[in-house]
Amino acid sequence: MKRKNLAPKITAALFLLLLAYLTADNLGILMSTAKSYLHREISFAGVMRQITEGYQEDLKQKEPLITLNGAYMRLTGARVSNGIVRMKNGMLTEESASADPSYAAGQITGLYQYLRDKDTPFLFVETPRKPDLSGSLMPEGTESYCHENADGLLALLEAKGVPTLDLRPELAGSAEALEQYFYRTDHHWNDEGAFLAFQRIMERLQAQFLEDTILSGITQRENWEKHTLPSYFLGSHGRRVGIGFAGVEDFFYLTPKFETRMSCSVPSDGIYREGSFAQAALNMERIAGKPDYYNSSPYDVHTGENYDHVQFRCETAPSPRKILMIQDSFGLPLEGYLATAFREVETLDLRYLKDPTAVEVIDQFRPNMVIVLYNPFVMEGQCLQFGLDDK
Question: What does pTM read for this prediction?
């Protein structure tokens, strides 16, 4: 019986020695953890959690450790690893706590009222996020309140008369929708999801500007070409739990089949690109060469990454309207699509915008429409600091 009880300890010790062999620089950390386990101070599951969470800042060459830990968690049937949840359909997401939406509602309503006084149309767009709206894909014992939080925010905005567009029912209403419109290992929608959002937003803009031709061939999916890079992507959730837990997936992006002449400028970073959509709106360096699963995201092919203030100009756009969109990272693929339809499109990411404020940019740019596009996790913080307190 005593020999049988030694088996888990021996297995754990061998596993830790293997990790040490793969990353000799971490030998001190790993042996310290092994000692704690052998003295029954922590469980083997605690060993793995301590390595991937507690020591993540100090570990060198940690990718093999994350990969091996993910494989171990997958083999043991675990549904949660390093804060990431593997849903019943195999897609990754994360838990979320209940949040009070009143602060976000107050800030967004304030911006709407500020623009209303200037006769500038406004639209708040709620983007989806995993899991599905019903929450039926979440494993037992896990919690996600992101959709309840978003419902509360939308209810408060609508009570104040703020125009809203809720994309969640169509893009996250079922497991099938999530699998079609989201990456399996990332929290972002894929380009099919972003393009559907583009179509729905353009429909609202057409209703706003009845005299314009907003809906055109640009908004028809068959006029865009899909480019796929097989097994090229490990998303933000996948990087936290490792390839062994989640696997990798294909990455794809869209380019127009029609002619485009445009430019993309990021003044704060000294970036300027011009030419076709692929030359201006995409940064192809982000998907050049072999995939770097843990250190680079091909999602950043859209514009290049999250920037404070991006300016698009498009000579071939059918509409002369000026659009300004305040966004989180879900807006990256969407901003390029909008830029093909309007002569001037500017976007702001308030996490990085320091000076001027959002309302100062609006006053200078004088757009025909302002869109705020946020996912359900945006309930507080810098994303909601529009600069209204200075007015």
Answer: 0.85
- H or E stretch including 196? helix 191-208
Calculate mean pLDDT across residues 362-369: 98
Q: Of 29-33, 109-113, 266-270, 344-348, give the lowest mean pLDDT range.
A: 29-33
- The dihedrals phi and psi of 370, each to the nearest 5 degrees, come to -120, 130
Contact criterion met (CB below 8 Å) for 324 and 111: no
> Which residue, 122, 162, 62, is CA-closest to 325?
122
pLDDT of residue 384: 97
Asked if 19 and 51 count as a contact pair (C-beta separation under 8 A), the reply is yes
**pLDDT of residue 376 exceeding 90:** yes
Contact 331, 287 (CB under 8 A): no
Strands 262-266 and 84-86: unpaired
Query: In this structure, how many other beta carbons lie within 10 angstroms of the beta carbon of residue 387?
Result: 19
Q: Which secondary-structure segment (H or E) carries 206?
A: helix 191-208
Residue 1 has a pLDDT of 42
Q: Which residues pair with 38 in a beta bridge?
A: none
Residue 266 β-bridge partners = 271
| CA pair distance 297, 293, nearest whole angstrom | 7
Alpha-carbon span 332 to 341, nearest angstrom: 16
Is the separation of the CB atoms in 193 and 182 below 8 Å?
Answer: yes
Strand order in the sheet with 342-348: 164-166, 122-126, 369-374, 319-327, 342-348, 309-314, 262-266, 271-275
Q: Reduced to 3 states, what is the DSSP secondary structure of residue 161?
A: coil
User: Coil, strand or helix: which one is 389?
Assistant: helix
The per-residue pLDDT for 2 is 46
Name all contacts of 192-195 with Cβ < 8 Å and 24+ positions apart. Answer: 193/128, 194/330, 194/333, 194/334, 194/337, 195/221, 195/224, 195/254, 195/333, 195/337
Q: Which two structure tokens, joined as six digits, stand for 6?
A: 């030694």
- Give me the phi and psi of 311, to 5 degrees please: -120, 120
Give me the percent of the chain exceeding a pLDDT of 90. Answer: 74
**Amino acid, res. 294:** Y
Host H or E run for residue 321: strand 319-327
Give me 240's structure tokens: 């936290």
CA dist., res. 7 & res. 100, Å (int): 49
Residue 4 carries which side chain, given as an amino acid letter?
A: K
